[in-house]
Write the structure tokens for this entry.
Amino acid sequence: MSRENRKTPDACFIVPPFIEDSIEENGNAEQREKVRESRLQSAAVRQDRVYTPNASSTPPPGAVGKDRHVHDAERGYLLPGRIKRTEGTVATGDEHVDEAYRWSGAAYDLFNEEFGRNSLDGNGMDLISSVRFRPGYDNAFWNGRQMAYGEGDEDLPEASRIFNRFTILDICGHELTHGVVQFTAGFPYKNMQGALNEHFADVFGALTAQRVHNQTAHQASWLIGEGLFTNRVQGRGIRSLKAPGTAFDDPVIGRDPQPSHMDDYVVTDADYGGVHINSGIPNHAFYLAAVALQDTHPFAFTAAGDIWYRTLLRSTSQETFESIAELTVDVAAAIYGAGAKEKVHRAWAAVGVLTSPSPPSPPAPPEEPEEPEEPAPTPEEPSPEPDPAPEEPEEPGEDPDYGQPWCKKLWARLTLSHDLEEEV
Ligand SMILES: [Zn+2]
């Protein structure tokens, strides 16, 4: 497994450049000046000119488990800044500090309690956050060592405010996941691999929020950055996994450019090759898989999240959408059985990444018994239930012939078109 990008990742920012471009073009004078200043600060972060005194990833001897350190950059550019809250201490009353503390803990808990991972590096790495990076900075980022959050437009007159502060639950989960990706697959932050990096960050950012709110796949908003925009902006969030391309449509910040199907994949040099754009395609596949799995696993942070997390562990840095899709199908089959495998496969087919919604069943792994091979019965003579893996009973109301190859193909096609209709 490749790890070449582990030590020197690009900084990953939550606000994509196309939103900044739009504000520079369409905003008022205050907004334009603000975005130009934020971009200068982001450029300094990218070039690693932001001072970071050994924010080491190595935990002290004996350190295990959650260990949060929240700093206040006090609107300066030195990271991490002055320490404000450490693990186990009481709330400070400073919303920026306390949110960064609480939500980085929520992301840690997701990975630890659902998937058994001990922090970003799997080895108890400290979770370092800095709030109030630069005056009125309109972004948040992971710089390979820590998270940092801007305070948004609190310094602007109300009529000019676009962004609230950036210490938002799913944004914290998103930024922390860039750390997990760095220490696992190590996707470079460019082109399709960069879109996968963004995809996994969005998936586990959304799941961090769903777990805190105890929301099922059906109940969740599936938005990233919900609450980031002030109510002057026509936008519900910065991205939508449920309906990519619909998160915002506003005269100042522009229109959500995310596709949800491979037919609309955007080839561009901007945005590191469209990392925040084309991530909409795998994002939507994850949403479809989570919704399809919810009859047996209502919470997306259980089975669907587990499949995606195990996929991340098995990924190399050069995966494509298609190879990632195949990995998720393999993982789903191995852990959750044939029913889950079909659902995950159909999700990727619905976004045009896998071409066949129902390929012939491969040889069964040990934990997934071969399906019965009796001749296909007529619809009037239903066969007994197929024999799924223990954790994946057949969908209620499904045709009892579903396990037969002829019926599987028909069912997959019908369900695929149903999924597509639902997502219009
Ligand atoms: Zn990101």
Q: What stands out?
A: The chain is about 40% helix and 5% strand. The longest helix spans residues 321-350.
